[in-house]
Amino acid sequence: MVDKRDEADKLLDELIKGKTPQEIAGEGGLLQQLTKKLYERMLEGEMTHHLGYPPNAPEGKNTGNSRNGKSTKTVTTDTGDVQIDVPRDRNGEFEPQLVKKHQRRTSSFDDAVLALYARGMTTRDIQDHLQELYKTEVSPTLISAVTDAVIEEVKAWQGRALDPVYPVIYLDAIHLKLRESGSVKNQAVYLALGVNVDGHKELLGLWVGEHEGSKFWLNVLNELRNRGVKDILIACVDGLSGFPEAIETAYPRTEVQLCIVHMVRNSLKYVSWKQRKAVATDLKAIYTSATAEAAERALEAFEAKWEEKFPQIGRSWRTSWQHIIPFFAYPPEIRKVIYTTNAIESMQAQLRKVTRKRGSFPTADSVRKVVYLAMTRISKRWRRPIRDWAGALNHFSIVFEGRI
User: Fold this and answer.
1) Pair (179, 315) in one structural domain
2) What domain range is 230 assigned to?
3) How far is CA 10 from its chain centroid?
4) Mean pLDDT of 62-85
5) Strand partners, 169
6) What is the band of 274 on the pLDDT scale with cuts at 50, 70, 90?
7) Three-state SS for 228?
8) N or C: which end of the chain has fewer CB within 10 A?
């Protein structure tokens, strides 16, 4: 029995035999020729399905409709511009689905544009890339039309229904430059990343250009409530500007946990490189304590040793202590999950790589498009639940009995 894969390989070898890369993938090359043939063959199949009989078949006589030649159109594909012959029927009833009437580019080409946009490329970059790769002239208007179609998708995504309970949500922001009224201003993009009961990460929403404060956070939390989130067990944040007041109003039973890693990082900003290791070691004694009481004693010891040189550090830990100590009430399984907002910071690091290329954004919608498309690409890697989630979930069900 002949293996069909062997036959396909032999046919492919014959097709490319003796051809240069330019003759295969260049303008007018083998790939474009095959694309043309494939599209025309599929369109002919659509016409056969529409009429109910193949070309020149006797059963087509006196059916009231028949083939009526072809029209030629140029379609932009992911192999470049391809001229294809589209079959027509005599009654003008044929509606091709592969390449619809008035359609001048394929969905795969649109996907290619969106993929480039999601990587932070500007309209000019995308134009140059497509010209270089496919020898295809693409106008800025066309690129905008392709990417603007994403806005409706973003609106639907931002308004979608959410799970009733999230054991953990992380709230953080990235800062971008937005051109507004002729000047460039720093704007924040606030992100809410949830961990669902299965331990999978899920971006719940993004909000552009707001000023952090209790009113802002209350609007965000009320939006989550309206979308079906009835309970949040722990909210992990890197700062507390207005958040405790807002969470108390929207989710009075939710515990606010300040990111320990942010606390350490902010503390070390005051320390020279020469003393950083020693200070970090003494700070570690605080957040690795077994209990809140032990952590308090470690903080007192830290202050006794470093207060004279770095009074700001002890003061910042004291100011935030109320939202640090919930951490010590939990077993190691939960501590691992809430110890840091790294889950969202890792995501933000990837977003910064994308947004850094843009310099500044012309509109808030352009920010939403780039961030949404980038997040769609990033989230494809979130296939596995958070490490050791089963143990954490077991403890969540005990600590927050009846809520999960």
Assistant:
1) yes
2) 164-399
3) 41
4) 80
5) 194, 235
6) very high
7) coil
8) N
